[in-house]
Amino acid sequence: MIKKYQMNLNTYIGFVTDQNDNLLGFSGMGVI
User: Fold this and answer.
1) What is the DSSP string of 21-32?
2) What local confidence, expressed as pLDDT, does residue 23 receive?
3) pLDDT by residue (tens digit) across 2-31?
4) Biggest CA-to-CA distance, the chain
5) Predicted local confidence at residue 20, as pLDDT
6) Is this model's pTM higher than 0.85 or not?
7) 11 exposure class (CB count in 10 Å sphere: 0-12, 13-18, 19+)
8) How far apart are CA 4 and CA 23, in angstroms?
9) 16 and 24 in contact (C-beta within 8 Å)?
C-alpha cells in the first residue's frame, strides 16, 4: 500500500507542478 501511495504521489507531484496548483494535487491525493 505504501508503494502504491508513493507511485501516486510521484504522479501527483508531476501533475501539480504542471498545473502549478498544490491544493488541487493534495485534494486529489485525498480522494484517491
Assistant:
1) -HHHHHHHHHH-
2) 56
3) 677 666 777 777 665 665 555 555 555 555
4) 27
5) 53
6) no
7) middle
8) 21
9) yes
